Amino acid sequence: MAPISVVATWVNSEVTDIDRYEQTVSPLARDPAVQDVIIERATDGLVHKIDVRKITDALADTLADRDAPRGLVDAARSLDEELKGGLRAGVRYTVAKVVTSDAFAKAWDNIHRGAHSAATNVLTGEEGGVLEAKGDTISLNVGAVIEELQKQLIGVTLVGAEDIPGADKSIVLVHNDHLSEARDAARWLSVVAPWLPWAVVVLAGLGIWVAPSHRVAMMAAGIGIGAMMGVLLIALAVIRQICLDAVPPAAQSQDAAAALYDTLVRFLRQSILTVLLTALLTVITGYLYGHGRGAVAMRTAAARGTRTAGHALARTGVKPGAVGQWLRMHRPLTTVVVMAVGVLVLVLWHYPTPASVALVLLVVVVVLATLDVLAAADAAERR
After folding, report:
1. By three-state DSSP, how is residue 164 classified?
2. Can you tell me the distance from the alpha carbon of 236 to that of 230, in angstroms, rounded to the nearest whole number?
3. Is the Cα torsion angle 373, 379, 382, 383 positive or negative in sign?
4. Close Cβ partners of 317 (under 8 Å, ≥ 6 residues apart)
5. Is pLDDT of 129 > 60?
6. d(Cα 23, Cα 32) in Å, to the nearest integer?
7. Could you give the angle at the alpha carbon of 186 between the alpha carbons of 135 and 16, nearest 5°?
8. Neighbour count for residue 102 (Cβ, 10 Å)
9. What are the tens digits of pLDDT across the range 259-272?
10. Whole-angstrom Cα distance, residue 202 to residue 378?
11. CB 20 within 8 A of CB 13
12. What is the tally of helices (H) and strands (E) in the chain?
């Protein structure tokens, strides 16, 4: 269930969280490879609409009317390619300034936020947006536009704005027999996806609890989940190569296609790495609590360090009192509680990352070391 949980959670976040979706697509407007593709496409489209032959013919006719030499008139008629090249350079320079500007990036974000809202309304069947889905029909709601038009026309025309009809009108855009199925899938995803990570944690916990050896079962769970995350990373790399091979070089830049794929799946890759790191830490933790020579040596060194720190703390006159005594008598319990809290924090973290896993690990280690030092200080005080 771990790979299904990771992928489903990622898809659900992109579908239901507009801020997450904007964070996903926003870097594309600022990526040089994607910008180059947009600039080239826009330049080609604009230059294609310019009738260069008409311009050169007009120039030649003007020269001929002014009795210019025949050679000059013919030369003017043959300036098509030169003029087209100059126009292209000028248009490309202007388009590049627009595409690489902050205004374009902000417009890109706003367009995608609007598109995401419209798509979400279609999938969820929510009303009130520009696009609405009822049954198997997608309609364009023009009511908001008409209301704004009414406000603008008040006191401007002879007809009262309140008399303008159509405020409750909608235009049918698409009728699709599979729209209901897509909405049902989106609803199921929104219901199931948030609970899948909890299901994985609970099932893994139950498996560890009923196993004859809790430590071995915990390591087995970590190895199994880590292996599945490795498979997911390999699958992402294979799919990436398939996507790049399917893009004709003449149709789109390979660099832009790579940037597009890497940007769109980067949060999925980040989630996979987060789970992979957590699984590896689980395996390492299980090993450190085992009977291996390396594990015993590390535990001995850690105990010696905390004991030395606790004795030094006791010599300074600090008395942990009842707290230190309780910690000394309940070391296994406090260790389990602190580690469980760390796991719970990661599960409840909105969008955990490898950095957040490292932060939680650091806090857990510091808290455990502090509790051990207090317990050691109490033991030194009672000698």
Report:
1. coil
2. 10
3. negative
4. none
5. no
6. 17
7. 115
8. 9
9. 888 988 999 999 99
10. 37
11. yes
12. 17, 3
Q: How many CA atoms lie within 13 A of 44 on its CB side?
A: 7
Number of C-alpha atoms within 13 angstroms, CB side, residue 169? Answer: 9
> Residue 151, exposed/middle/buried by CB under 10 A (0-12, 13-18, 19+)?
exposed
Confirm if 178 and 132 have CB atoms less than 8 A apart.
no
Side chain identity at residue 120, one-letter code: T
Tokens of 334: 């406090």
Closest CA to 48 of 81, 88, 76: 88
* Phi, psi torsion values for 31, nearest 5 degrees: -85, 125
Cα angle: 231, vertex 237, 241; to 5 degrees = 140
Amino acid at 223: I
- Dist CA 109 CA 271 (whole Å): 23
Query: Positive or negative CA dihedral for 149, 150, 155, 158?
Result: positive
Q: Are 131 and 140 in contact (CB under 8 A)?
A: yes
Query: How many Cα atoms occupy the beta-carbon half-sphere of 142 within 13 Å?
Result: 12
Answer yes or no: are the C-beta atoms of 268 and 10 closer than 8 Å: yes
How far apart are the C-alpha atoms of 363 and 355, rounded to whole Å?
Answer: 12
Summarize pLDDT for 274-307 with one digit per residue, the tens.
Answer: 999 999 999 998 898 888 888 899 888 988 888 8
* CB contact at 8 A, 272 and 337: no
Both tokens of 35, joined, read 């910008």
Q: Do the beta carbons of residue 193 and residue 152 sit within 8 Å?
A: no
Q: Is 318 left (phi over 0), alpha (psi -120 to 50) or beta?
A: beta
